[in-house]
Amino acid sequence: MKKFINLNNLTPLNKTVSENILTALTYWLISHINYLLFSTIGLVPMPIWPAAALAIVLSFYKGLKIAPGIALGSILANHLSLGAGLLFSSCIAVMNTIGPAAGAYIMKRKVTRYFRIKSIFDLAVCFSAAIILTPFMTALGGIGSKWMLGLLPLSEVPAAFGKWSWRIRWQHCFSASQCLPGLAGGTNRK
Question: How much is the pTM?
Fold first, then answer.
């Protein structure tokens, strides 16, 4: 039986392009399903954003070469699924890409790709990168863009920022509790 998609037979450029297209479509699909689930019960904005966890995991393993896929997925999710304007969706995408990339970069400085953590300090750095820095950056981009584009009055910025960043923090905590035990079984630190 033939494999549906075999990225190993592609040139490096075609592989990177394919991975970014798959990332964009996966980010959008996860976000769209999330929207459909929560909108049926009237809970919009959603209390969790699973695509944020996808973005930090892909950034951790693929680095900056996957950034275009994360950005495009974010634009598709915010514009097509959530109905945000294209300019606002593009602004959100900037920090939805930079935030996970920065968090993943910091985490990679302390652990291997198999997520071997040597000390409590390394654990604290990884926790801070994923649960504090990344949500802060994405919330700053989303709420800051909304305010700068005139879509949110200044008086509502602090509350909106808090809701946005906590939604992503909660999702990262939940995702980490599901993923990290499996990742920790890898080889020793290089």
Answer: 0.83
CA-based R_g, the chain, Å = 17
Query: Has residue 4 been placed in a domain?
Result: no
Q: What confidence tens digit (pLDDT) does each residue in 43-102 have?
A: 877 877 889 889 999 999 999 999 999 999 999 999 999 999 999 999 999 999 999 999
Q: Which residue has the tokens 């409590």?
A: 120
**Residue 130 carries which side chain, given as an amino acid letter?**
A
145 within a domain of the structure (yes/no): yes
* DSSP-derived 3-state class of residue 42: coil
Residue 170 corresponds to which tokens in the numbers above?
A: 């909660």
Burial 72-102 (b: 16+ CB within 10 A, else e): bbbbbbbbebbebeeebbbbbbbbbbbbbbb
> Residue 66 corresponds to which tokens in the numbers above?
């996957």
| Domain of 152, in residue numbers | 9-183
How many domains is the chain built from? 1
Asked whether residue 171 is assigned to any structural domain, the reply reads yes
* Strand, coil or helix: 5: coil
Asked if residue 188 belongs to a domain, the reply is no
